[in-house]
Automatic annotation (TrEMBL):
Gene3D superfamilies, sorted: membrane protein fhac: a member of the omp85/tpsb transporter family (2.40.160.50)
InterPro entries per record: Bac_surfAg_D15, D15-like
Pfam family, one: Omp85
Organism: Niastella koreensis
Keywords for the protein's UniProt record, in alphabetical order: Cell outer membrane, Membrane, Signal, Transmembrane
Residue stretches making up the Bacterial surface antigen (D15) domain: 579-790
Subcellular locations according to the entry: Membrane
Protein name: Bacterial surface antigen (D15) domain-containing protein
Major localisation: membrane
Source organism, top-level taxon: Bacteria
UniProt KW Signal keyword: yes
Length: 790
């Protein structure tokens, strides 16, 4: 009888969803025109259809839509995502169709399409007193031009030598598709090469690209069609695979100073510049490392400022050094504005450039108090983030020790909300010191690195997990951070490259002291694994992490990886290994990919983590005797977990898994679960709904899939195989949740309301593999989150 009721419930749910979908589809398909000119046809809908095998067809279609004349574009206003209003549609005129075709043809030519063809059709429907015009453009891009040969022929021998020496770094390659943007990017790259070698005054007026004249004529939109036919006939052999030649050249020299190499003369530095009128009687001067300092206070150490200036007196002008100096002082944070002025010296026959570097200081200290909701994404003891409500205090010093060393002192008190309302209380105090350089026993060259830093962290926290345990923890670490990749001065150069942010912590010390309650000790009798998880913990580890990303057109890809090793060296001390020292190697990685459209986007995330535990511990329950056995699981504050607003949203935080075991169900189902391994895949379709009082209201449909796994034992000390990861059980172990979301975007932060259902619950894997177990309309899981889930 119960099974029959459950089947009826599922059928009703599916029926209800299908009914709502039909209603929504019928409503959204309706477009309401408003404020149109009576008695005249107006543009109701414009469609672009691209024919042929065209790469990235959707992106090309969007770019072609942007090329349309404004008088054939339709602008819709959406209300609550179900009502679409066409406000003040333009009057239809065939002249605007012709203009749009010219704009689209120019775009296709710039993208290298050989002989594009654009056909247009339109028809007018009469609906009541409305004359709705439907316009369709059928675009046949044709064959794309490909680069055949690329050459350099500069009049000046020095420029020619530099161009040939850097030829291997060209952003255009043979057999690649020809585009005007690529040619422009290569011109920018050449100018950067020249300016990095002293040619300060050289600009785009002095260099140009000469393309194959016959083929170039074919992509000239003003060319007579009959002349194009004649040229096509002369290039019959190239018709199947059209190619083009490009040669980069130099215009005749009109101003000889543009092809002269410039050298740096005097460099004047104002470390504490002010926007007020400069008073020459109220300042001091000093010469440090050849730089002329002019200052009004002793706020900064002059040798420190001089060490961060890379455009030095006497050297040849180098644009890369110029931008690196600006970027360096900007990233240090002690200055709010950097003005680096280059002045050509007129009273000398030798090309000389003087420079003025004006540094405008920021406020030295900043105190911030805030009340916020936040999340717990990793360590519940050593990390100050909780999902709940927290009070934060933060004191920032931007210029400690007069060398732009940043110190941050923060205090926090938070409560974590769970099934029993208040689940966790936590207080923490942290102090971080950021040194704007590498501090190492041996000198490391950092010229090729961006923002190299040395970071010292000190953190103490207290956690009261009500009715389970109380813990005190202390954490300190010494590490290095740097960025490897393209600098700001290289932004004009094309050629997508991954920009990598590295962090290496050679020393990380964490100690946790846990006081167990009677409730937790009772649970240890029920779940033996808890006996080894919730203990005093000592971690002496080193950590290496990398994050990187790349953006191209409407796609963004982000990657993150991290590896932590604890106890590899200190674990050879038996007293530590058998005591509280945890020995493990933990690896995790994350892949995110976004595809963005004008009113919607797709988001994908894949996460995987694994912890290899190999230490020893005292497994005896009698304090008078020792029994040494293997550590089975990661410490609970380093373990993986799933559920909550930023993971598997159909489950509460730390309430999924491990595997398809039922060890934590029934009377212990509200106890948190941890694992040595985690796999997770999430996808979302995000779309705009409307705006209310200037607040953007958006929504999303999402699916989450994943689980955690660990080594678990029952009361008879038998291994619970359903909790361990095995490929032949992966289908049974995977949990799947799905739902919808309502999101309020305030620009500077986003509030997210998620509602999710357990579509496949591995805890009921024996019943239809866990699919659609007890799904009812109000039997979902609500999640409140800040920001996007990924």
């Amino acid at each position: 009888m119960l099974l029959l009721a459950r089947q009826v419930t599922v059928f009703r749910l599916v029926q209800w969803i299908a009914y709502c979908a039909l209603i929504a589809a019928s409503i959204t398909s309706c477009t309401v025109p408003k404020h149109f000119q009576a008695g005249k046809p107006f543009v109701y809908k414009t469609t672009i259809k691209i024919q042929g095998n065209v790469p990235e067809k959707l992106q090309l279609e969007e770019r072609l839509i942007n090329q349309l004349d404004d008088s054939v574009k339709t602008q819709y206003i959406y209300y609550v995502g179900v009502r679409r209003v066409l406000e003040k549609p333009p009057v239809f005129d065939t002249v605007n169709i012709v203009r749009s075709k010219l704009f689209m043809t120019s775009l296709l030519h710039s993208l290298g399409y050989f002989h594009p063809e654009i056909k247009d059709t339109f028809h007018i429907d009469t609906v009541r007193k409305q004359y709705r015009t439907y316009i369709t453009f059928t675009v046949i891009p044709g064959k794309v031009l490909r680069l055949d040969s690329i050459g350099y022929a500069f009049r000046d021998s020095s420029l020619q030598h530099l161009a040939m020496r850097q030829q291997d770094k060209s952003v255009i390659k043979k057999n690649e598709a020809y585009t005007q943007q690529k040619v422009s990017d290569e011109l920018d790259r050449l100018l950067t090469v020249f300016r990095n070698n002293g040619y300060y005054k050289l600009n785009k007026e002095d260099v140009y690209a000469e393309v194959d004249t016959v083929v170039a004529a074919l992509i000239d939109p003003t060319l007579d069609p009959f002349e194009q036919i004649r040229l096509l006939d002369s290039l019959r052999k190239k018709r199947e695979n059209p190619t083009i030649n490009v040669v980069f050249k130099q215009h005749p020299v009109k101003d000889s100073s543009r092809i002269k190499k410039y050298f740096i003369g005097k460099v004047f530095v104002y470390p504490d510049a002010s926007y007020e009128q400069f008073d020459s009687t109220k300042h001091d001067t000093a010469n440090v490392n050849g730089f002329q300092f002019i200052y009004n206070s002793h706020r900064f150490r002059l040798p420190f400022v001089a060490s961060n200036i890379y455009l030095k007196p006497g050297i040849m002008y180098n644009q890369r050094r110029y931008f690196r100096t600006i970027n360096n002082f900007t990233s240090l944070g002690a200055w709010q504005n950097v003005d680096f002025e280059i002045i050509e010296r007129k009273d000398t026959s030798v090309p000389i450039l003087d420079a003025k570097l004006k540094l405008y200081p920021s406020l030295k200290q900043n105190l911030n108090l805030s009340l916020e909701a936040s999340r717990n994404v990793s360590d519940i003891l050593t990390n100050g983030q909780l999902f709940g409500i927290g009070v934060n205090g933060r004191l920032l010093n931007r210029n400690a020790y007069r060398e732009a060393i940043q110190t941050v002192t923060s205090a926090r008190f938070g409560i974590e909300l769970g099934s029993d309302f208040i689940q966790t209380l936590q207080a923490s105090l942290a102090h971080t010191i950021n040194f704007p350089k590498f501090i190492t026993p041996i000198k490391i060259k950092t010229d090729s690195l961006i923002n190299p830093r040395t970071v010292l962290n000190l953190n103490a926290s207290y956690t009261d997990r009500l009715l389970l345990f109380k813990s005190k923890s202390f954490n300190t670490s010494w590490g290095y951070e740097w960025v490897k990749g393209r600098r700001r001065e290289d932004q004009d150069q094309v050629g997508q490259k991954w920009r990598k942010t590295w962090q290496y912590i050679p020393f990380n010390f964490e100690y946790t002291d846990v006081k167990k309650s009677d409730s937790l000790r009772h649970l240890e009798d029920t779940i033996p694994s808890y006996r080894y998880a919730f203990n005093n913990g000592l971690i002496i580890s080193q950590i290496l992490s990398l994050s990187t990303g790349i953006e191209k057109d409407n796609k963004l890809t982000l990657l993150r990886g991290k590896i932590e090793e604890s106890g590899g060296l200190f674990g050879f001390i038996k007293s530590l290994d058998y005591g509280s020292l945890a020995r493990f190697v933990k690896i995790d990685g994350e892949y995110k990919h976004y595809i963005n459209y004008k009113h919607s986007s797709w988001a994908f995330r894949f996460y995987a983590g694994y912890g290899f535990v190999y230490g020893k511990t005292d497994t005896s329950t009698d304090a008078t005797q020792k029994k040494i056995g293997p550590e089975n699981n990661l410490p609970f504050f380093k373990a993986f977990f799933a559920g909550g607003p930023y993971s598997m949203r159909a489950w509460q935080i730390r309430h999924l898994g491990p595997g398809s075991s039922t060890l934590y169900e029934n009377e212990t189902k509200n106890i948190e679960r941890f694992g040595n391994m985690q796999l997770e895949f999430n996808t979302e379709y995000r779309f705009n709904l409307t705006s209310i009082a200037g607040i953007k209201v958006n929504s999303a449909l999402f699916v989450d899939m994943g689980n955690i796994w660990s080594k678990e034992y029952d009361l008879n000390k038998q291994r619970v195989l359903e909790a361990s990861f095995r490929f032949d059980r992966l289908y049974k172990d995977l949990a799947i949740g799905g739902g919808s979301s309502l999101r309020f975007d305030f620009d500077f932060f986003l509030i997210r309301l998620d509602w999710a259902y357990k579509l496949k619950d591995p805890a009921h894997a024996d019943e239809n593999d866990g699919w659609f177990n007890d799904i009812r309309l109000l039997n979902g899981q609500f999640q409140l989150g800040l920001g996007y889930p990924f």
